[in-house]
Amino acid sequence: MNQLASSVRVDVKTAYIETQSSPDEDKYLFSYTITIHNLGNEDITLKSRHWCITDAEGRKSEVHGSGVVGETPTIKPNSSYEYTSGTVLETPLGVMEGSYTMTDEQGQEFKAIISAFRLSIPGLLH
């Protein structure tokens, strides 16, 4: 991991959206709120995202795209950027992980890794 990547911390909070889910149809909607912290000394800009989403049956889907929620935010030193998005799984349990492609003030690209996090309906023991 290069020095720039270590200057980024990603925190995740997840929630099961019961009102928009249909377990009878194998449709489980989860939201995730991401907070990206810039712990470094210069502005960084989020350019793109890559997600790998795996459900409890081992089905994988990948998502690639520019920015997040229609934005390519620039995050100042010692500040953070937060957004909420969502995904639908066919099972009540799954895992997401991925990375953001970021650039520094000189335009140098680096990856900020998003560690695996769990998506599950409340009370599910696995």
Automatic annotation (TrEMBL):
Q: Which residues form a coiled coil?
A: none
Q: Which residues form the ApaG domain?
A: 2-126
Its domain of life reads Bacteria
| Annotated InterPro entries | ApaG-like, ApaG_domain, ApaG_sf, Uncharacterised_ApaG
Q: Name one Pfam family in it.
A: DUF525
Q: Cross-referenced HAMAP family, in alphabetical order?
A: ApaG
The name on file for this protein is Protein ApaG
Q: Which organism is it from?
A: Shewanella pneumatophori
